[in-house]
User: What shape does this take?
Amino acid sequence: MKPDYIFESSWEVCNKVGGIYTVLSTRAKTLQDALPERIIFIGPDCWGEKPCPYFTEDTSLFSDWKSKAGETGLKVKVGRWDIPGQPIAILVDFNPFFENKNAIYTWLWENYQVDSLHAYGDYDEASMFSFAAAKVVESLYSFMMKPTDKVVYHGNEWMCGLGVLYINKVLPQIATVFTTHATSIGRSIAGNNKPLYDYLFAYNGDQMAGELNMQSKHSIEKQTAHYVDCFTTVSDITANECKELLDKPVDFVLPNGFDNSFVPKGATFTKKRKAARKRLIDVANALMGTELDDTTLIVSTSGRYEFRNKGIDVYIEAMNRLLRDRDLHKNVLAFIEVPGWVGEPRQDLVQRLESGQHFDTPLDVPQITHWLHNMSHDNVLGMLKYFDMQNHKDDKVKLIFLPCYLTGDDGVLNMSYYDLVLGNDLCIYPSYYEPWGYTPLEAIAFKVPCITTDLAGFGLWANTEKGGYSEITDGVKVIHRTDYNYSEVADTIKDTVADYSNFTDDDVKKSRAAADKLSKKALWSHFIKYYEDAYDFALRKAQQRIADGVKGGETLSFSEL
Assistant: This one.
C-alpha cells in the first residue's frame, strides 16, 4: 500500500540544529518526486517576526485552510522548505499551547500513561510543538482529505511522540510511524560515562531513567514506541538498544541515505577543494605563526559537542600520540569542528587574516579560533592543556578548535561546512555512541576517506558492504570499538593517519575513488525502499483498525483546553 499523503514532523524541519535536519532535508526530494506536493513537513516556528533562513512563505498555498485554522487558534506559516525538491512546509507557533500544558499532559497520562511529572529543560517546548503539529494534521485532514485517502503521519524522535499518540487516538484512520534516531536513555547512559554495550542486556530502561533523571523523555519515547503503528530506527545497533531499553523491538530499520545533488563536480570540485585548503591553512598560519603549505595533511572531526559519545576525547588522544610517531613524514593540521559555548571571533586573528601578511609568532592560545564563554571549563581546551599541546612550531601535528557552526558567517573561516569538508585529506569520527553517523557519509560523498567505528550504524553498514572490516583503502576505515578499548582505538587512528601520510599519489586517488563509490551506494534512491515498506506496514494496520470498527477519541480543542 502506498500513501496518498505523508505528513512528517520534526523539531528540525526548517530548523538546522542537528543531524536529523540532514536526514529529512536530503530525503525530501526523493519523496517529493514520488508524491509531488503530497509530502508535507511540519516544523516549529522558532523565528516569530524574523524570517526563517531555511523557509520561504507562500501565501497562496492552502490559503483557505490557513484562514479556517486561524479561527480555531492555530497560528501557522505555509510555504516551501528551501532544500532540493522544495517540499511544502508548515511552521506552527506552539507558544499558545503552553498555558494549557497541564490539561494536555493529563490527557496524555489518562490515555497512554506517559509520565510528564518529571519534565524539565526542553521537554515542555518539544511537547507543545508536537501537540501543535498534530493539531495541524488534524485540521488539514478534516479540511481537505477524503475518507478514502491513505494518510501517513511520521514523527521523529521523542520530541514528536506526543503528537503521534494524539493522532493515533483521535484519527485512527491515519497510519502512524515513529522513528527514534537514538534512544534518549541510551544516549544518556553513554554520555554519563557508563558502559552501554557490555551491560545493555542487564540495563532496565525505566530504572536507568529514574537514576539519570530522564523519566519524562524516556516515558514518552517508550509509550510512543509501544502504541504507534510502525516503530522504526536508523541502524541495527540502535534497534538492539530499543529492544533492551524500550522493551519494544523495532518494526523496521530505516538507514539514513544521502542526496549528493549539491556535491560539486569536475573542475568546480577541484576549485572548491583548493579554496577550502587555502582557507584552512591561511587561518592556521595566522593563528600559530607558522608556514604550513599545501603538502600539509589536513584532518578533522565534527558533529555535536558530545565529548565522549562523538569520540572527541579519543581523537585528541590519537593526535597527541601522533606527535611522537616516527612513521609520520608530513605535517598534520587537525581540526575539531564542533559548536561550543562560543563568544566571539578572535579579533586578533581576524586582523592578521585581513592584513594579508605572514607572521612568525603565534597568538595567545594558538589552539582556538573563537573565544568561548567558558574557556577555563571547556573539555577540548582542558584536554589540550593536560597534554600540553601548544602547537609549537616544530610540532608535526597541530590541533585547532573551531567551536562554532560553520554556516559561512562565523567571522573567521566564513565558509560553510560543505564548502570546507572537501578540503580535508581525512575525516575522523571515532564515535562511542552513534546510531547512524551522517558526518562520515557526508565526508565520503565529498570524496574524503574517513575513519569511524563499528559502534556507529554507518560503520556497520560499511562493513556489510565490504563483507568484513572496511579499511582506509576501501574509502572508510572501520575500527572495532568496545566499552573498554579506548587506548587501542587511539593507537589505530594514529597508525591509520601515519600510514595515509605515506600513501603515494596513486594510493590516495584509489582511496578517494573508493570513498566516492561507496557513498553512491547510500543514496536515497537505494534506501527509500525501506520507508516504502514501513508506510505499507503502517497503512495496513490503520486499515485493519478501521475494519475492526475502532472509533476516534475525542479531539482536544482550544475551548475544551
Q: What stands out?
A: The mean pLDDT is 96. DSSP finds 19 helices and 17 strands in the chain.
